[in-house]
Amino acid sequence: MSFLQNIVSYFHKYFALTSITVIDVIEIIIIAILFYYLMIWFRKTRAWTLFKGIIIILIIVLLAAIFNFNTILWIASKTLSVGVIALIIIFQPELRRALEQLGRRSIFHGIFFSNGTKKMRFSDKLIEEVLKAVSDLSRDKTGALICLEMDVGLDEFIHTGIELDSVVSSQLLENIFEDKTPLHDGAVIIRDERIVAATCYLPMSSSRSLNKKYGTRHRAALGLSEVSDAVTIVVSEETGGISLTARGKMFEDMELGDLKQQLLEAQTGTAEESLLTKIKKGETNNGQGQSVPEEVDRQ
Predict the structure, then answer these.
(1) Which residues, at least 6 apart from 159, have a Cβ–Cβ distance to it below 8 Å?
(2) CA 20 to 30 Å from 9, out of 32, 164, 187, 261?
């Protein structure tokens, strides 16, 4: 009984409502909208994992307040000011990008003008253009690194390259990766049916289990898949082999048919038992039909 009394008394003490005015309702709506978009923003960045940790800490503090754990409350009160400063430092890149996006977008458009339909990440035409380019690049043994942005934004990597904002076409992709051209070195990032940037620098994978035969393109593609949900296609300059990385895994020597199937399944993200869902389970085969273990050399 004392447990229930503590909970009731706590909520009576801190959440007792005397009277609600129109101003209060407006404030609640504004705070709810801001909180909603804050959660959406966190969900699409790497800060989401850190944010979940903060939520756990807040839950612990709330339980400590309910059960009168004075030592935990004392520690929390002493570290609150330092914690706020630490959060600003930790989330500085994400906060800067959020403010930039706030200046470019209308936050009310999605609320009042949404038609309720699920938007496809990219079109069939884009898939065909990418496949044709990959086929020609593979045949000519021209190295390539093509990234398809999914839900997690890749702005921090886009800013490292040269912004293009061009329509996706196989001819343009082949020309970008043509040896000795100014844009051939680095990655191409595709977002919303357009090539947004080329010569982008991607984070190198630090995995010690990565096979030493892989060059910088494969390491960069795998590194991006470890920090985002992007799907990246790699064409080897030495062998012309086609690889795909997603969810921290690499799948090599893929046939064009298999690659097309995976892109179609990633198009909406709703396919069951697809490559992108099996990646988490370690049940997927590579292009040659051989099993890919969970913690091997990512072949």
Answers:
(1) none
(2) 32
- Cα separation, 85 vs 79, in Å, equals 10
The structure tokens listed for 291 are: 């099993």
Portions of the chain given CATH number 3.40.1700.10: 124-278
Spell out the residues 6+ positions from residue 122 whose beta carbon is closer than 8 angstroms to its own.
Answer: 148, 190, 192, 193, 267
- For the chain, report the end-to-end CA distance as a whole number of angstroms: 58
Dmax over Cα atoms in the chain, in whole Å?
A: 77
**Tens digit of each residue's pLDDT (9 = 90 or more) over 194-235:** 999 999 999 888 776 677 777 888 889 988 988 888 899 999
Fold observed for domain 124-278: YojJ-like (1 (3.40.1700)
Give the C-alpha distances (Å, rounded to integers) separating 187 from 82, 144, 179: 39, 7, 14
